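Side project, low priority. Logging it here so it doesn't get lost.
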Amino acid sequence: MESLFKVRENGSTFWTEVLAGITTFVTMSYIIFVNPGILSKTGMDFNALVVVTCLASALGTFLMAVLANYPIALAPGMGLNAFFAFGVVLSMKIGGAPVTWQMALAAIAVEGFIFIVLTLTSLREMIVNTIPKSLKIGISAGIGLFITFIGLQGAGIVVNDDATLLALGSFKGNTPALLALFGLFLMAVLTAWNIKGALLIGILAVTAIASAMGLVAVPETFISKPPSIQPLFWQFDFSLIGKMEFWVVVFTFFFVDFFDTVGTLVGVCNRSGLLDKDGTLPRAKGALMADAIATVAGAAMGTSTVTSYVESSSGVAQGGRTGLTSLVTALLFLGAIFFTPLVGMVPGYATAPALILVGFYMMMSLRDLNYDDWTEFFPSLLGFFMMPLTYSISIGIEFAIVSYVLIKCFSGKYRDVSGLMTALAMVFIIKELFA
């Protein structure tokens, strides 16, 4: 185990990695039910989707462990699954005919194969390592603010308001929100005392209290036989591959997945100290290949794009530093196939405080930003704020890169800008103006 993951070399221990893997799994286990809930709107079999979500997540996370040795978990991406269901299958027509979920799976498979080719040519790795260190700091912190915002929403602490867009949720009679606040402060206090497993303890404590109060139904059995994935397995329909609209769908999946993955890898690895002294990501090719293979395999099983998850930061916050963390998470996803009733007991307001706290943890990277150089500070902070305000990691990266190139060039520091960064900025500008 030590020779494979180099746990001690990375300043961790076996039990720290195991605890981190459990924490990551519990924090992102909501995907086991949320992903089927979204994709089943297209007519896909819900029960089969539960199994496929677990299998695809386990495979992708296992590949991340062995190919890159990073504590990052993968699963069908939120946002990408919504686009799959509502943006493509339920609303798009190609040649006057509606797009079926089988056609959408074919588009994801094509996207995944393109990713594999680009990863083999090292283009994706070049893009990850070309992003300047200041932008990596901004991206990392921006993801932190983003997932803190998601956590506050999930807890019911921040709610929608038609007049001001956002407002404080009501706590009167809102037991879930109060339990979420209790969990948040419990985790914060335990963290202040340097208690290992603070996030996991908080999640389990809130779940136990909710169960005792009758807010969470205790299942009659914790073990269930997994249903067959036959209704979804290898259900590709490539009949529209010759249509331009099909490639528009492929490009959309490709673009969002590419920069969500880049942002997650850079953000999580920067905060956990896994970037080298030059701010580049070692073993980036292995991490990106894990993502690409998992996307193709996930489409073959019958789910939307598999991508790296920002919730991996919860495991990193618990000390996870190697692929052993990911291996534990992968094994738990496999086990969840048989224990879905038990996993389903954990309510969203129990995991929401963990996201809030992890977001705080990731925003601490702003202390490393060069505040004396406006050409580094401005684009980093612009990307930082655009991520949560547009609800998109990829859009935050767009604004960070474009503003970096523009302010450097118009400030006479064009020599700081690489050709690849300039090309990316031009692609982003064209996309927003003409897409």
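Brief comment: The chain has a mean pLDDT of 86.
Revisit when time allows.
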